[in-house]
Design brief:
0% strand
Length: 376
């Protein structure tokens, strides 16, 4: 999320257009997408603790590189390395929860993981904006890299390990992965999650901040406070949808209707922004309701054995992060079709850019609805 606050600084320092800024930020998501399937196999084979600890060292190295970047190309490549390094941070948690907890608690535990992630994202809103008053962005990034390395060490020396047994051969793991990718239920969940997160995360992690600046007229401090409010709405969404989904699970009911209702309300909120009725409150509703999309992870893990948790979560995550990459970069390319203003990007460009991700979100939800019988 750090680029949402750093965007104006990075654009000025590296001379980036909106499309280039979108590419710089979204390269993180593209690197994520490419690592999901192979690293998902590693999660099931070697366990979440060791895989995540090693990769977080890679993330720290990428963060240090980004802090020293002297060109846009170097910054983009460093951003990709960061994406590879943190690509299993969430997935290792979801895999561990599937191994450690009964099925009726998985949605709640997943919501805990997402919530803690947003607490981290909150540190790059108002706290980062205040830190940048006394530190350079490069010094701030070195701090983030150091913290990532510290977490890697903590995982190695503190966190317990559990690997599902019996351990399958690599050929068996790959064969099961092939069956998963051909499952109609998986495909519909993946597309819905991908299009939903294309709208939610690609906007939340970059373009909501520029909308607040260019359309609502916020200054830098107000943008940081606005992002903080959006993150709080996201935390509320994760907690409430997670608890509600597990309550349905305890009564033998699927979380699918809850997921579709949440994504539908999220799309309706984004529609208000496209129609010209946007405000910080509407953005908060959009992001809060969008958290229902992540119920797809728990729906999927309940469908498959525990020893496939890593592959199931990372496989659906491929769609999510391809969607985030395409949405974030694509919005930047659309914004570039209008001349920039002294303040930033043209306000009249935003409805067109947002309408594209809204259409994708609605299409993904409609396809999931049409094939909901496959998930019964």
């Amino acid at each position: 999320m750090v680029n949402a606050v750093l965007a104006p600084i990075l654009a000025q320092e590296f001379g980036l257009s909106a499309g280039q800024l979108g590419l710089l930020s979204s390269m993180y998501f593209l690197a994520f997408a490419f690592t999901q399937l192979p690293f998902g196999v590693l999660l099931d084979r070697f366990g979440p603790r060791r895989v995540n600890a090693v990769l977080l060292v890679v993330a720290a190295a990428g963060g240090a590189w980004f802090a020293q970047a002297d060109s846009a190309t170097s910054a983009i490549l460093a951003r990709a390395v960061i994406g590879v390094g943190v690509s299993m941070a969430l997935m290792s948690a979801l895999t561990a929860f599937a191994l450690w907890y009964p099925a009726e608690k998985v949605s709640t535990m997943n919501s805990v993981a997402f919530t803690v992630g947003i607490l981290g994202a909150m540190t790059v809103t108002v706290p980062l904006e205040m830190l940048l008053r006394v530190w350079s962005w490069r010094e701030a990034f070195m701090l983030i890299a150091g913290l990532s390395f510290a977490v890697a060490l903590m995982l190695l020396v503190w966190v317990p390990e559990r690997i599902a047994a019996p351990k399958a051969t690599l050929r068996m793991q790959l064969r099961d992965l092939g069956r998963l990718l051909g499952d109609k239920a998986f495909l519909r969940l993946a597309v819905c999650l991908g299009t939903s997160q294309s709208a939610a995360i690609s906007l939340q992690s970059l373009w909501i901040a520029t909308w607040l600046r260019d359309v609502a007229g916020y200054d830098t401090a107000q943008v940081a406070r606005g992002l903080l409010a959006v993150h709080l709405a996201m935390i509320a969404g994760y907690v409430l949808f997670g608890i509600a989904a597990d309550r349905r699970a305890r009564h033998g009911k699927s979380a699918l209707p809850l997921m579709m209702a949440g994504v539908g309300c999220s799309a309706a909120s984004l529609g208000l922004v496209v129609a010209g009725f946007g405000s910080l409150a509407v953005w908060a509703l959009f992001v809060g309701f969008s958290t229902a999309g992540v119920l797809g992870y728990s729906i999927l893990t309940r469908r498959y054995p525990r020893d496939m948790a890593g592959r199931a979560n990372t496989a659906i995550n491929v769609a999510a992060f391809i969607g985030m990459f395409a949405g974030q970069w694509g919005i930047g390319l659309v914004l570039d079709r209008w001349p920039q203003t002294p303040a930033g990007y043209a306000a009249e460009a935003y409805p067109w850019a947002l309408a594209i991700v809204l259409a994708a979100q609605v299409a993904g939800l409609a396809w999931l609805w049409s094939g909901r019988r496959h998930l019964v």
